[in-house]
Backbone:
């Protein structure tokens, strides 16, 4: 029986000077070992939810627990168990790939030997071994995204949060990232995958949650959602059915 | 380990930033050298007055010889002889010379006559036989012309010097005349005693500090090296805040915020690294003062006799400078805001702190305001150590002020940083 990795209960957030709630009474669960696709159009509340999940933003109401720990009370403990790859490249451009990873490894509290072996392993997996001593500023967009992902998983987090991990990368890099995420799923990690690219979500996510205007529209396993909307051929059609076809800014 | 990792990371970021390296090391060195050279003349002006004064000697007698002899012994005045009073006046008017002294024709003879008249009158009054000269003699009029742009203290000093010479000569001649009158009519007059009135009373000028550094005064090097060193140390906020905000904008700071327990090591690692950089800056600037300044014709920086006191002061200034840099980095949201405010504030703090010109030449209101500038605390401490040979106890109040400033800045930084890292 799978246990609950993340639990959001009635989560609400409204930004100052904003007429609308960014997140409104959001309630859902994410099972341990699942790859959860958090989907929604622009301004749906995905990033706000992720920020609250990481403890970087305080909700106005409701609660979040990660592995049974309340984020507001045990934020520091929770952050030890999660790895986050933000949408932007959260790396030092003038440091080499190795120096970046070694520094973040140290900040995760890892031992030097462990950091070295992890760096060797992941640089090999992501095809960056030969670039280990090149500064990040010389990397292509795809290489930066791969390195950004390695920096998030270097310390074996139990929960990995990925915000648009394939945005702006070429097909080869995207394929490599998605294959790796699938392999992480088999290793038992829980992954929250926030993306616009529904085709990718369909390919790697076991569970999905579609939100819009801060509200949860649907959640469940990919199969259950597809069955519930059997008239739709694919996830994109379900997404458009639930969120509408209006352009979002 | 996390702090050391951050220190090493900051080191790598800095060595790969040539602009930052230049700003931290090259610019301050250039600045201190240029400022010491530029301010050398004004400092000499304040303390080493060397006035070229025209001397029109219409007298050509013993009084003029006495005046020239007295000024020759003075380190501050050089007499340049001229023949023509009108030309001398024109040169002073044109600002070529600061002053001119005109000793009128027959001044010596008139002074002798006046002295004799004075003594014979006194003798006659007391019943001694004396030939009284009852002619009404006018006062001997030594004229002085001044450049309107001369500083009033120079004018006073020069007038005082001339008056002092005249008074000394007058006293000597009165005593001579007295001996002359007393010996008149005696078959075997006693030999005249040469009386040097300058030996009767003298003003003994000394510096309060009594050790091998006695006599060392605030000069361009002694002022500019510690002053601009502190300026450079406070300017550490530029690379510090710049890197901090760049990390925030580029996203690496976000990752660090997401790593549990990384906030304290990040702040303290940055603080530690830039603190060390400040100390390296200090050592380099001091080395420039000792080894480079003399090569440029300036005086060598003298550090005094309290190396521990210097180390303590340097560390406390480095703490204050780095703490201020961290506060600016944390408080401002954009690099433009932080760097604009930061650099202008450092310039203001340095101006009121006595970096540009010594506090004692500032208006009274600024002297009061300067008490609130950390740079004035540091500068006062360095002056105490370098010039006054102060003990650690004497510099302690300023050191504590600097450390207090650093702790307040750091505490405020932590509060602000935490308030922005929500949970």
Residues:
């Amino acid at each position: 029986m799978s246990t609950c990795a993340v639990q959001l209960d009635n989560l609400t957030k409204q930004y100052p000077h904003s007429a609308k709630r960014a997140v409104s009474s959001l309630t859902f669960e994410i099972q341990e070992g699942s790859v959860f696709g958090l989907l929604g159009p622009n301004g749906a509340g995905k990033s706000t939810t992720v920020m609250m999940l990481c403890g970087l933003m305080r909700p106005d109401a409701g609660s979040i627990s990660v592995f049974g720990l309340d984020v507001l009370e045990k934020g520091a403990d929770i952050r030890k168990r999660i790895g986050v790859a933000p949408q932007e490249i959260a790396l030092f451009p003038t440091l080499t790939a190795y120096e970046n990873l070694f520094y973040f490894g140290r900040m995760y509290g890892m031992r030097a030997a462990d950091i070295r072996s992890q760096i060797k392993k992941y640089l090999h997996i992501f095809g960056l071994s030969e670039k280990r001593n090149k500064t990040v500023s010389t990397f292509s967009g795809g290489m930066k995204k791969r390195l950004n992902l390695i920096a998030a998983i270097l310390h074996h987090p139990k929960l990995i949060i990925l915000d648009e991990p394939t945005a702006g990368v070429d097909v080869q890099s995207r394929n490599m990232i998605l294959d790796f995420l699938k392999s992480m799923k088999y290793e038992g990690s829980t992954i929250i995958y926030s993306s616009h690219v529904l085709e990718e979500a369909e390919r790697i996510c076991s569970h999905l949650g579609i939100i819009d205007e801060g509200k949860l529209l649907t959640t469940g396993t990919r199969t259950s959602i597809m069955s519930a909307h059997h008239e739709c051929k694919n996830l994109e059609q379900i997404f458009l059915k639930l969120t509408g076809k209006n352009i979002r800014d | 380990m996390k702090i050391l990792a951050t220190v090493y990371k900051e080191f790598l970021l800095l060595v790969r930033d040539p602009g930052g390296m230049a700003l931290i090391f090259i610019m301050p060195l250039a600045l201190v050298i240029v400022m010491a050279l530029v301010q050398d003349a004004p400092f000499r002006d304040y303390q080493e007055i060397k006035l070229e004064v025209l001397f029109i000697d219409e007298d050509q007698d013993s009084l003029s010889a006495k005046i020239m002899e007295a000024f020759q012994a003075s380190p501050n005045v050089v007499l340049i002889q001229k023949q023509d009073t009108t030309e001398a006046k024109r040169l002073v008017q044109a600002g070529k010379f600061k002053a001119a002294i005109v000793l009128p024709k027959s001044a010596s003879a008139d002074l002798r006559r006046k002295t004799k008249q004075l003594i014979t009158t006194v003798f006659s009054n007391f019943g001694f036989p004396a030939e009284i000269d009852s002619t009404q003699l006018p006062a001997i009029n030594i004229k002085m012309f001044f450049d309107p742009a001369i500083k009033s203290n120079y004018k006073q000093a020069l007038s005082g010097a001339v008056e002092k010479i005249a008074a000394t000569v007058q006293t000597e001649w009165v005593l001579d005349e007295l001996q002359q009158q007393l010996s008149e009519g005696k078959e075997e007059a006693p030999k005249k005693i040469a009386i040097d009135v300058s030996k009767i009373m003298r003003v003994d000028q000394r510096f309060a500090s009594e050790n091998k550094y006695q006599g060392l005064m605030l000069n361009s090097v002694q002022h500019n090296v510690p002053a601009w060193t502190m300026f450079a140390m406070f300017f550490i906020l530029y690379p510090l805040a710049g890197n901090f905000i760049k990390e925030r904008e580029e996203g690496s700071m976000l990752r660090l915020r997401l790593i549990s327990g990384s906030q304290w090591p990040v702040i303290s690692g940055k603080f530690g690294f830039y603190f060390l950089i400040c100390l390296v800056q200090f050592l380099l600037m001091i080395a420039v003062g000792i080894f480079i300044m003399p090569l440029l014709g300036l005086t060598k920086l003298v550090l005094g006799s309290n190396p521990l006191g210097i180390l303590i002061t340097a560390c406390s200034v480095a703490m204050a400078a780095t703490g201020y840099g961290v506060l600016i980095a944390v408080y401002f949201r954009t690099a433009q805001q932080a760097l604009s405010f930061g650099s202008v504030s450092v310039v203001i703090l340095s101006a009121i702190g006595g970096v540009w010109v010594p506090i004692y030449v500032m208006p009274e209101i600024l002297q009061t305001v300067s008490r609130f500038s950390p740079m004035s605390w540091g500068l006062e401490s360095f002056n105490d150590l370098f010039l006054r040979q102060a003990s650690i106890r004497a510099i302690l109040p300023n050191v504590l002020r600097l450390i207090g400033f650093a702790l307040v800045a750091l505490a405020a930084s932590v509060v602000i940083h935490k308030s922005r890292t929500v949970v």
Q: What stands out?
A: The CA atoms of residues 133 and 197 of chain B lie 27 Å apart.
